[in-house]
């Protein structure tokens, strides 16, 4: 693996590599800030080096020391969207193999993009404040000074002071009372310590603190949630997590992170889940009461191998994280539920893939598998494309080589790059090398058009998915399409969808949104009354039904859309609904955003502002 420059970091990561991070934090809920010290142990990668450069963004840097002695340092001018380089001068030049320890005392500011601070009123029981981090892709630098690139991995020690329980992306090692000497501390502060012995990139550094309780959901798994939600979360997850882990292990190799836990966050969390090592941070929208959205956990669990153990070297190769993870997730679904579910999930994914390509434009740089992010914000490129185009590339190779042979490559790949980072070109070389002595496999791989897969924008050829589970959805949608054209005597009734999974309802509604002519308004009301979609507690269903209504410009659903936009912070739902509401009623869209912008995580808030054209 030749080192590659990550275009989205200002650090000199080709000259120094962080091997260990020791971070000591104090949480101040009253000031909505963190402050503390971080000690970075760096390995020197070249000769005659005189300066370490770290990533920072909106941090208040106070003191810097090198190898225990005060050092000269400067914070450079801000370079959007990457922040400000922290340049630390070394007393004398260092050479390849030398160890350098940089210790920085700092605090976060109100402009920190990695943290969300919530007042008690914003939480479910309204008793205590809450905070959580979200560092992917380049937000760790607004939390602490670091080499903020997935090409660098380090072990971690955490020491976190807080008046409320703490979770972090490591193994808990203790809790003790904190007695302040000179530094102030909030009442009742405890010190929570964690250790992460497996090297991880900066974007997987994660913390959360609030009124959090936990319960076992498997022999090596806990669920963390608010006390009032804990039992419901436990019931939703307890039968599935260990099954998912064992299934993934049978496909790849043994789970390495000791525990696999899930923290159900407040509803403002911007993603379905974030694969923080040892503890997935998850949206409460997966807790639907019917286990229909639990497969999100299969996805985040799969990241324990793809993304966490084996990581993309830069965000230009993000498909290596998400394409592999989506592929493994669907293999888990196929093994647990039957192979038809592998295909059914892929059908749903293709729809999201197609919509993302249409949104960017078929020739857009961000619709490629390997993208150019020089001077660009990785958040702007975020979509279903790296997930689904990556999945479809791997599924293409699976079919090309044959499942039996392909399955021998999977553990080899994850063993070869275990605890490392790689590029798409490393992946290609490893695949070709693995099958080089297999004449048949080498012959078919010689026909792979790598440049087209890596660099051609837009959609590839759609695979011939097994539509068994989708056929009934398509047939019902066809009946509604005929009704919409006044060419049918079809009379909808609740029995139409009796026994359907939520996934089948989603496919049905997405088929409706593909109609060349939007559903007529009186038919939307008929669908609402007969199928009860507007009363659904499942965000996947309700968001799709609102999409159907907004595409038809049904004014009766505008206020309901505004209401759920004040309850959901997950970008998968928030961004498309805002875009559609903006087309229908821009005044209401802007009013809704203004009312709820404090509720959204900074990452979500920023991209929605761009979607709405708000400067």
UniProtKB/TrEMBL annotation:
Binds 1 zinc ion per subunit. It catalyses: an epoxide + H2O = an ethanediol. Zn(2+) binds at residues 299, 303, 322. Gene3D superfamilies: 3.30.2010.30, Neutral Protease Domain 2, Peptidase M1, leukotriene A4 hydrolase/aminopeptidase C-terminal domain, tricorn interacting facor f3 domain. GO terms for cellular component: cytosol; nucleus. Its EC number is 3.3.2.10, 3.4.11.-. The active site is at 300 (proton acceptor), 387 (proton donor). It is found in: Cytoplasm; Nucleus. Its cofactor is Zn(2+). SMART domains: Leuk-A4-hydro_C. Residues 468-612 form the Peptidase M1 leukotriene A4 hydrolase/aminopeptidase C-terminal domain. Coiled coil: none annotated. GO terms for biological process: proteolysis. Keywords: Cytoplasm, Hydrolase, Metal-binding, Metalloprotease, Nucleus, Protease, Zinc. One of its GO terms (molecular function) is aminopeptidase activity. PANTHER family: LEUKOTRIENE A-4 HYDROLASE (PTHR45726:SF3). Belongs to the peptidase M1 family. This is Leukotriene A(4) hydrolase.
